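Reviewers of the previous submission asked for a worked example of the structure-prediction workflow described in the proposal, so we include one complete record here. The input consisted solely of the amino acid sequence. No template or homolog information was supplied to the procedure at any stage.
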Amino acid sequence: MSQVRAFLAIDLDDDLKPKINKIIKEFKQIDTRIKYVELTNLHLTLKFFGDIDTNGMNLLEEAIANVLKDFNAFNIKIMGCGAFPNRNHIKVIWVGIDEDSIIRDLHDKLDKEFVSLGFDRDKKFSTHLTIGRMKSAKNKDKVKSVIEEFSDFEIGEMEVSKISLKKSTLTPQGPIYEDLTVFEL
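From that input alone, the workflow returned the following structure tokens.
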């Protein structure tokens, strides 16, 4: 039985990456331990599946295609910077999605299909792009001040016209993502 570590995502447009990199550069000036997401890997996760059996991949692809037939391409606005679980206890640093009702609707309909295939329902879903993971509390106040400085920073708009089922291969240098199936909206 062959398995693949997989997730469903919306990739970030390349023309928005320089503005996100501007935020990352501000964090890099702080003497702290943050593991940054490579700009090429920036994405909005709709569902993380974990290790799945490749024999069932066609069922998963059919479920995704079935939900997506009710959706057309749509625009999203990427803006702001924040932290999970919160700014006083920073584990993940992210940029956000403004007016995310279409993405939430898409996620909820996909999640319902995934539950029918035996996956766990997402207990929490947040529309965000992870840009870094804080590895220590060193200089947390400086990190917090950069988050606050960029809390309303406008990154830009992009059209969501496709969604990708991706394979994630973990390596010591970081994850490598490959598209397994790209679904057009």
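The chain has one domain: 3-176. We consider this example representative of the routine output the project will generate in years two and three.
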